[in-house]
User: Which sequence fits this backbone?
């Protein structure tokens, strides 16, 4: 009598296992479809995504200030409003003071590049290289080297101007970004609550944990990166000012912003300074000084600033960092490169939490 | 006011009032003012469970506490809620459970199932700690009450343990 009972039990166990596998399969397909849909939405509504990402970045940056004001007894709405009034005044003042400076520096670079100076400079370089690299033999080889340098610089100048134009077009969106940011800060907790309300009971506690952890991780990362970028920007401006490099403010600011892109950032930040220095003096000595200055800044950043201000995020393999930064660049340009690492670390947290959830909660019955 | 609108406003008012009354009866929140209770209502999550639906299983990580707003739940040990090995308690409107999860994420010590259609108010540790960061004075009040509650339970457990030991000695 025991044998059929055991058989029945084994069939039941098999069915439960099969049910679990089927459940995991369905959930995996749903997760993959969601990721695909998200990428499609990001690509299709690129402009809108950029606006939302920038607003969310700002909201994360300002949230601790709102929280601080709340501890002082202000309501969330009043705290948010107060911050926006103060920020509005500061941004207005900043634009009034800094915008003419940046505009004049960009115009000055543009005029310089359009003038005959660049052509003369390349002719000079050609002559110097012909002399110094005479041991290479044929003058065609030397000519080849200078042509390659020239085309690389032209490409770089175009890239620099594209960046400047995109920065200025971003400024025109300023009117929309504060509007979205205001509501993200003021109604953020209510939005989170509404999102959790839509989650089925079985996934409720797990989702709460997931949202809380990703929110914390993202917040710490963004705030840390922003402070880091600001400090590296300030150091770069000071270094370039000391080295008497033209447009030090504009180039230093770019270096600070670019520093948020892992591995590629510091190079992107140093190249404009080197180019401007070469066009300024046509001597290699300042280039060496710029390289030394940027290396020292990177050292200060890696040893002092980053460990202090950038919160410990999820460990990501350097190769994966390079791959995701390149994918981010393909999808959303510079902004994509900036958000690639935080997005990846968030995805890692989500996957880890889901695995933890499956192990610790009886989600599959 | 049009009767329809007054009805709508009354309903929402009643619900909020209802929630205030329920929360103010919970020992952890009993000393709080209406304004302070409002903060907890803001971070609370309302969930509706069908009869027989599991709220959480024993061993799952604890995230927060639940307060029964309507309906009945059963706290039990066992794999089958229909045939539990031990039933610890049957809780109804105004009762609460899982409050120790407000302190840490230790695994749940028992499973809980809804006996009928049940409305629960959930208050969760991450939201609570975030509220305490913003309102530290409120945090002190609530954590003190929670500590007193845990202390009281420890005393009861010690007494039961002593009684068990005495019975064993006899």
Assistant:
């Amino acid at each position: 009598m025991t044998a059929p009972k055991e058989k029945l039990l084994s069939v039941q166990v098999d069915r439960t296992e099969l049910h679990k596998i089927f459940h995991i399969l369905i959930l995996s397909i749903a997760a993959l479809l969601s990721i695909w849909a998200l990428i499609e939405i990001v690509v299709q509504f690129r402009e809108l995504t950029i606006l939302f990402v920038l607003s969310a970045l700002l909201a994360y940056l300002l949230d601790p200030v709102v929280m601080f004001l709340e501890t002082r007894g202000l309501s969330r709405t009043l705290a948010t409003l107060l911050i926006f009034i103060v920020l509005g005044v500061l941004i207005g003042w900043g634009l009034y003071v800094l915008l003419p400076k940046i505009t004049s520096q960009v115009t000055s670079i543009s005029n310089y590049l359009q003038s005959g100076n660049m052509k003369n400079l390349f002719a000079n370089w050609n002559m110097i290289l012909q002399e110094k690299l005479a041991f290479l033999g044929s003058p065609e080889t030397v000519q080849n080297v200078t042509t390659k340098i020239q085309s690389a610089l032209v490409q770089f100048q175009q890239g620099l101007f594209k960046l400047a134009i995109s920065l200025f077009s971003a400024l025109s969106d300023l009117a929309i970004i504060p509007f979205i940011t205001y509501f993200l800060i003021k109604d953020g907790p209510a939005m989170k609550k509404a999102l959790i309300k839509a989650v089925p009971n079985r996934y409720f506690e797990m989702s709460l944990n997931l949202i809380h952890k990703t929110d914390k991780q993202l917040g710490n990362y963004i705030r840390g990166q922003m402070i880091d970028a600001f400090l590296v920007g300030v150091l770069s401006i000071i270094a370039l000012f000391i080295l008497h490099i033209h447009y030090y403010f504009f180039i230093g600011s770019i270096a600070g912003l670019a520093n948020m892109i892992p591995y590629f950032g510091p190079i992107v930040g140093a190249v404009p300074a080197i180019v401007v220095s070469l066009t300024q003096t046509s001597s290699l000595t300042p280039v060496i000084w710029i390289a030394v200055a940027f290396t020292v800044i990177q050292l200060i950043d890696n040893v002092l600033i980053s460990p202090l201000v950038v919160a410990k995020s999820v460990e990501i393999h350097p190769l994966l960092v390079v791959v995701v930064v390149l994918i981010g660049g393909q999808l959303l340009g510079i902004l994509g490169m900036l958000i690639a690492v935080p997005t990846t670390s968030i995805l890692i947290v989500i996957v880890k939490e889901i695995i933890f959830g499956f192990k610790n909660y009886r989600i599959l019955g | 006011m049009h009767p329809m609108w007054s009805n709508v406003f009354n309903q929402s008012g009643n619900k909020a009032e209802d929630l205030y009354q329920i929360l103010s009866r919970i020992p952890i929140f009993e000393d709080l003012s209406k304004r302070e209770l409002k903060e907890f209502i803001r971070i609370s999550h309302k969930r509706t469970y069908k009869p027989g639906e599991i709220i959480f299983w024993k061993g799952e990580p604890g995230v927060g506490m639940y307060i029964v707003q309507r309906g009945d739940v059963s706290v039990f040990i066992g794999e089958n809620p229909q045939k539990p090995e031990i039933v610890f308690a049957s809780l109804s409107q105004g009762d609460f459970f899982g409050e120790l999860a407000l302190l840490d994420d230790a695994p749940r010590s028992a499973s809980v199932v809804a006996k009928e259609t049940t409305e629960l108010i959930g208050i969760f540790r991450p939201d609570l700690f975030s509220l305490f960061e913003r309102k530290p004075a409120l945090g002190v009040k609530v954590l003190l009450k929670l500590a007193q509650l845990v202390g009281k339970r420890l005393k009861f457990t010690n007494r039961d343990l002593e009684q068990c030991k005495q019975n064993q000695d006899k």
